[in-house]
Specification:
This protein is α/β, with parallel strands linked by helices. The chain is 38% helix and 22% strand. The longest helix has 26 residues.
Length: 306
C-alpha cells in the first residue's frame, strides 16, 4: 500500500445539459482514484461551507478519502460548467476557482508534520501553492506536481528544482516532439527524478533520465462516456504502482546485507515498475472514461438549488 496526500484544488462540475453536479478537481480526483486502488489517500485543501462543498465532502466520505486536515471556510466552491450555446457544447468557469484561488491553503508546520506520515504528496498548478512547495521539499517528502497544460520553460525550470515527479498534459499548439522535449528539459537540466506526459488517445510517455517509455491507451476505439478525470486516473494508477514496487524493493534492501542484489538488478526492478505502472494507469483511465463525471458521485442540481 502507498500512502498519498493530495494537497490543493477542488471544484464541482455543473452539467446544465443533464442537470447533474459532479465533484472533482485534480487533487480530489487523484485522492479518490488512489483510494479506489486500495491505497491510503488523503485530500487537504480549502473547502467552502456552501452546498457544493458538501457535495465534495460527501463524496470524499463515500470514497474513503480522509480530509480532516482541510479547513472549511466561508465562501464559494469553485464551479465549472457544461452547457449548450447555440447548439454547441461549451465548458467554462463560473467563479474563477472559488476559495481555492482567492484564499489558497497555508502549508503550516502542523500540516508538514501530517504530510510526513505519507509516502508522496501530490499537488497541481490549480492549487496556487507554488510559493510554499519548498517547505515540502525541505521536509524530504517526495512531491508529484501536475502542470496540466499550463507549462512553459520558465515554470518548468522553477518546479523541476523542487518536485521529484512532474506530470504534463500534451499541448495541442505543439508538435508531438515539442511536447516530448519538455520531459528532457525537466529531468536532464534540473533535479526532477521523473517526468511524465499524457496525450489522450496518442498515449503516455515516461522519462526517468535514462530511458523513455511509451504506451498507447487500451481500446481507445471503444469510446468514452465522459473523459473527465482520465488523466488524473492515469497518473494515480501509474504512480501508486511504480512506488509500491520500488518501495518493496527498498524495504528488502534495507533488511538484507550487501549481497542482496546488484545495482543492475535494482535498475531492472525500476524499469519493470515503470512498465507495470503504465499498464495500471491505462486500465484506470479506461475505467474512468466509462463513468459519468470524474468518479461517478454526481447529484442532481435541483437537489442543491431547490
Amino acid at each position: 500500500m502507498v500512502k498519498i496526500a493530495c494537497v490543493g484544488d477542488n471544484v464541482v462540475d455543473i452539467n446544465y445539459i443533464d442537470g447533474m453536479v459532479n465533484p472533482g478537481g485534480n487533487c480530489v480526483n487523484v485522492a479518490v482514484y488512489c483510494s479506489q486502488l486500495g491505497h491510503r489517500a488523503a485530500y487537504v485543501g480549502v473547502l467552502a461551507d456552501d452546498a457544493y462543498g458538501k457535495v465534495l465532502t460527501d463524496s470524499l466520505k463515500q470514497q474513503k478519502v480522509e480530509y480532516f486536515m482541510s479547513p472549511i471556510c466561508h465562501g464559494e466552491t469553485g464551479r465549472c460548467f457544461i452547457n449548450l450555446v447555440d447548439g454547441d457544447r461549451v465548458i467554462g468557469d463560473e467563479n474563477d476557482g472559488g476559495l481555492v484561488k482567492s484564499s489558497p491553503l497555508a502549508v503550516t508546520d502542523e500540516l508538514i508534520a501530517y504530510l510526513k506520515t505519507f509516502d508522496l504528496v501530490h499537488t497541481s498548478c490549480y492549487s496556487y501553492i507554488e510559493d510554499q512547495l519548498v517547505k515540502i521539499k525541505e521536509a524530504h517528502i517526495p512531491l508529484l506536481y501536475d502542470f496540466s497544460t499550463e507549462w512553459d520553460k520558465k515554470k518548468v525550470k522553477a518546479i523541476s528544482g523542487i518536485a521529484d515527479f512532474i506530470l504534463f498534459s500534451g499541448r495541442d499548439d505543439l508538435s508531438e516532439q515539442e511536447n516530448l522535449d519538455v520531459l528532457f528539459e525537466a529531468v536532464d537540466s534540473r533535479y526532477c527524478r521523473m517526468a511524465i506526459i499524457t496525450m489522450g488517445v496518442r498515449g503516455a510517455w515516461v522519462y526517468d533520465g535514462r530511458e523513455i517509455y511509451a504506451k498507447k491507451p487500451y481500446y481507445a476505439e471503444g469510446g468514452a462516456i465522459d473523459t473527465t478525470g482520465c488523466g488524473d486516473s492515469w497518473i494515480s494508477g501509474f504512480i501508486t504502482t511504480y512506488m509500491e514496487i520500488v518501495k518493496e524493493m527498498e524495504d528488502m534492501a534495507t533488511s538484507s546485507d550487501q549481497y542482496f542484489i546488484l545495482e543492475e538488478n535494482k535498475r531492472d526492478v525500476e524499469r519493470q515498475a515503470i512498465k507495470a505502472g503504465m499498464c495500471i494507469g491505462n486500465l484506470k483511465a479506461r475505467h474512468t472514461c466509462r463513468l459519468k463525471g470524474a468518479y461517478g458521485c454526481g447529484v442532481p442540481l435541483n437537489s442543491i438549488i431547490g
